Amino acid sequence: MSENKDPHVAQSGTSVESVKFVYDFTEGNKDLKDLLGGKGANLAEMTNLGLPVPPGFTITTEACKVYLDSGEEPAALRDEVSAHLEALEQRMGKKLGQADDPLLVSVRSGAKFSMPGMMDTVLNIGLSDKSVQGLAKQAGDDRFAWDSYRRLIQMFGKTVLGVDGELFEDALEAAKAAKKVTVDTELEAADLKKLVTKFKKIVKTECGRDFPQDPREQMDLAIKAVFDSWNGERAKLYRRQERIPHDLGTAVNVCSMVFGNLGPDSGTGVAFTRDPASGHQGVYGDYLQNAQGEDVVAGIRNTVPLAELEQIDKKSYDQLMQIMETLENHYKDLCDIEFTIERGRLWMLQTRVGKRTAGAAFRIATQLVDQGLIDEAEALTRVNGAQLAQLMFPRFDESAKVEQVGRGIAASPGAAVGKAVFDSYTAVKWSRSGEKVILIRRETNPDDLDGMIAAEGILTSRGGKTSHAAVVARGMGKTCVCGAEELEVDTKRRRMTVPGGHVVEEGDVISIDGSSGKVYLGEVPVVPSPVVEYFEGRMHPGADDADELVEAVHRMMAFADRKRRLRVRANADNAEDALRARRFGAQGIGLCRTEHMFLGDRRELVERLILADTEEEREESLKALLPLQKKDFVELFEAMDGLPVTIRLLDPPLHEFLPDITELSVRVALAESRQEPHENELRLLQAVHRLHEQNPMLGLRGVRLGLVIPGLFTMQVRAIAEAAAERKNAKGDPRAEIMIPLVGTVQELEIVRDEADKVVAEVEEATGTRLKLAIGTMIELPRAALTAGQIAEAAEFFSFGTNDLTQTVWGFSRDDVEASFFTAYLEKGIFGVSPFETIDKDGVGSLVRSAAKAGRETRPDLKLGVCGEHGGDPESVHFFHEVGLDYVSCSPFRIPVARLEAGRAAVTSAGSDHR
Fold first, then answer.
1. Mean pLDDT score, 59-87
2. Mean pLDDT (the chain, rounded)
3. Which member of 28, 44, 284, 389 has the lowest number of beta carbons within 10 Å of its beta carbon?
4. Considering 64, 84, 468, 554, which one is annotated as catalytic?
5. Degrees (nearest 5) of the Cα angle 274, 275, 281?
6. Are 369 and 375 in contact (CB under 8 A)?
7. How far apart are CA 786 and CA 871, in angstroms?
8. Quick check: 263 pLDDT over 60?
9. What single-letter DSSP state applies at residue 851?
């Protein structure tokens, strides 16, 4: 619920009967999005600003939730709707659907969060066989009236009555073919009248009932259909994709109709106060003469650029420009606006804070700071880590030899390569088989959502920056090129013909550039993003477009670094990764996995250690490994000089360092059959069998290895201590931290710590160097989290290993479950997102919170961090800030994302505290 507590909103203990379910546009405001939905709240806000909004009212999300919970509309809703409808009729001087001069209304969905095209809308409600005659008479235009009526039957039949929309489309195409025209505006009144008759027959055949002639029945059924559309498959899929809660419900907006299809002096359009693709200021949008709003977003007819409206209708254009400036200054952000011109009179139908590309988000945030509309803290809330990650993706190499075959509108940036597919089903099917695909359509509609999600990019031959494909792709951060008119898309034959006659068949590879709108045959090579080059220190802010973006990113990162409390470290196992991480802004290493150092040419030494039959053999193997380990740590300390380096002692089961059991068995069998020497392979096979575990991730690993294999952990501690001493004697500043993995009880940690302290003391004495090596542990088992207060007695720091903690809390084996049933869990809504991607706050997060609290109660100066993959996940970073951790650690390329989100977390939590 909104923090703006409205006395009419249902609170705990309030009866449904006392709740107000309907608000006039004059009663709400933009802060009531929880109650009125985004569309209703913003219509009310524009009404309050005195802008030309057609009168209407909003049915609240509370009414929807009652309906969804009980299956019935609230008892009071009909009377409230009747009262508001009567007031609307009095204001307009006409009644809904009356025969001589009908009031017509639209019924539109409007959830709290924008869900473009995912729920239902019905226009022209109130038209019937009688009132269409009155509309024609009042408008003085028979064609307009019959066009509006056929639109109502088509939309109502599909969205309310569930008729297959293709039946109406086929009938419309047949009517155009019979008339030998290509667009519906060329159909005359008589043609449209025949089409209405055909459409009504389709409804009768498919539904077993006539198209409803009672205007109030039309409106009531449409309201119910909008409620039902909240739980439609495409709406649920979109919410899962965008992580929108499923329990919000949608509002319903009933608005008096204004008509853009009254002739050449009428039209409809969508405008942006800034370019949603680039962020640049200017006149951006699409306009379509003699059309209703759905024609623009559907992309069925190609629009003209908004700037051309100045020549078509200068008075409306000038008024629109003034309103756009008013709205942007009022909302202090990019605004997305829908408008209609009815015979030269401008009407505002919607505004909202517009979806934008990642690059536009960073540019606009800094622009608004420079304009004095927002401050740095607010600017940080306007960008996010997911957008920054998009900007770090590679781009096409413009110097490569390419074959360009078309160019459309650059609707959503990125470099996408994949096999051409022509329907959503194929896109999903091929994607699940591991193929990268480009979804090609004439235009997309909401039913294409699952295919759009599966595809690397979307290409359409129709539509513009405001079409369904463009808006949805931008919201998902998906590469999109729209309106490539020279490309002839034949979805039935699954092919696309390009200029020159070349045919792209389904399965052929194409490349699309969402930044330029260019379409290429074949796979175009990619080069690093300028943003990555900036973080690598190879590009500096400058003047051209790429540098302008880099400048915006640079400024936002500086804002974040000044605001954040959380420090950001890197998961790095070698000097090369450590140096890259440092360039990306890492403030240390939060996880060095020493097992990665035991691979490659050292595997033989590890095998000798595992196969050792005597203490002498084991000591010899450890002695051989010691200088190699020491060299690794010297290089790390040099790369991270002056910054902390947390080194995790050996964690995985020893069998991982031995050959695969099947492969080894084959080798032994072949050697025996050939009577070749195979003593070493046989010893290895015996060792593999000896170390085999049914569930190795819960077996002999981590601290348990250090306790049962004498000398293993002390060798690693000695290597760390000697490397630190060498670096310190070379006037360096090594800051080593030794981390004991998989601890479940304080006694395990105490034993290993005592041994480590003795080794460190020996090195100090031998080198004459005073060392300060912190010793701590990973908290990755539920028992460790539950006994954190005890474990803190022996630990100077905790690092939460949330990967393993998630596995052990949920009882999941990650390697198995993600491929087996996670897809089903996500589709069924059991997960909003994988718990390995974003931390499960209620389960795993609860243990992190309680362990952090208990640990600090025992040791107030206990350092707390996290080193699982969640350390680079934007949403998880906010959680770690909230529970008071000191740092997060993630892979080098995620460091900028974590830095940005740590700054955003500090700003949003400060704002929350202030409120």
1. 95
2. 89
3. 389
4. 468
5. 45
6. yes
7. 21
8. yes
9. H
- What three-state secondary structure class fits 775? strand
Handedness of CA 584, 797, 855, 782 (dihedral sign): positive
Contact (Cβ atoms closer than 8 angstroms) between residue 411 and residue 514: yes
What distance in Å separates the CA atoms of residue 889 and residue 903, rounded to the nearest whole number?
Answer: 15
Q: Tell me what the mean pLDDT of segment 294-305 comes to.
A: 70
Q: 827 or 855: which carries more pLDDT confidence? A: 855
**Can you tell me the distance from the alpha carbon of 506 to that of 201, in angstroms, rounded to the nearest whole number?**
37
Which residues, in sequence order, are bridge partners of residue 121?
108
* The predicted structure's pLDDT at residue 689: 74
User: Residue 798 belongs to what H/E stretch?
Assistant: strand 797-800
DSSP calls for 700-733 = S-THHHHHHSTTHHHHHHHHHHHHHHHHHHTT--
Alpha-carbon span 565 to 883, nearest angstrom: 12
Q: What is the pLDDT of residue 911?
A: 66
Whether 468 contacts 116, CB under 8 Å: yes
Give the sheet arrangement for strand 479-482, strand by strand: 403-407, 518-521, 509-513, 415-421, 437-441, 457-460, 479-482, 409-412
By the 8 A CB rule, do 841 and 847 touch? no
Structure-block tokens of residue 828 = 């069924």
Residue 774 Cα to chain centre, angstroms = 39
CA distance 38 to 32: 8
Q: What is the pLDDT of residues 645-682, one digit of tens each?
A: 999 999 887 767 767 777 777 777 887 778 777 777 78
Evaluate whether 791 touches 754 at the Cβ level (below 8 Å). no
Decide the pairing of beta strands 495-497 and 488-490: antiparallel
Calpha distance 713→594 (Å, rounded): 11
324 contacts 335 by C-beta, under 8 angstroms? yes
Query: In a 3-state reduction of DSSP, which class is residue 406?
Result: strand
Q: What is the pLDDT of residues 430-459, one digit of tens each?
A: 998 999 999 999 888 777 888 998 999 999
Helix (H, G, I), strand (E, B) or coil at 795: coil
Token readout for 849 is: 């919170």
What is the residue-wise DSSP string for 113-151?
S--TTTS-EEEEET--TTHHHHHHHHHT-HHHHHHHHHH
Catalytic residue check, 468? yes
Task: Give the span between the Cα atoms of 608 and 610, in whole angstroms.
Answer: 5
pLDDT > 70: percent of the chain: 94
**pLDDT computed for residue 9 by the predictor:** 46
Answer for the pair 106, 87: CB distance below 8 angstroms, yes or no. no
Strand partners, 889: 569
Q: What is the pTM of this model?
A: 0.81
Contact 428, 450 (CB under 8 A): yes
Say if CB 795 and CB 750 are below 8 A apart: no
Tokens 């890197």 map to which residue?
570
And the tokens for 350?
A: 């919607």
User: Rg (Cα) of the chain, in Å, rounded?
Assistant: 33
> Residue 7: its pLDDT value, please?
42
Rounded to an integer, what distance in angstroms lies between the CA atom of residue 882 and that of residue 845?
Answer: 11
Check if the beta carbon of residue 869 is closer than 8 Å to that of residue 836. Answer: yes
Helix (H, G, I), strand (E, B) or coil at 362: helix
483: left (phi over 0), alpha (psi -120 to 50) or beta: left
Cα atoms found within 13 Å of the Cα of residue 753, Cβ hemisphere only: 21
Whether the CB-CB separation of 119 and 125 falls below 8 Å is answered with no
| pLDDT, tens digit, 9 for 90 and up, residues 347-395 | 999 999 988 989 999 999 999 999 999 999 999 999 999 899 889 887 8
Looking at 64, 335, 867, 890, which residue is catalytic? 867
Residue 600 pLDDT: 66
Q: Report yes or no: 465 and 482 within 8 Å, Cβ to Cβ.
A: yes
Query: By the 8 A CB rule, do 359 and 392 touch?
Result: no
Most distant CA pair in the chain, distance: 106
How far is the CA of 581 from the CAs of 317, 447, 487, 570, 586, in angstroms? 51, 42, 44, 6, 5
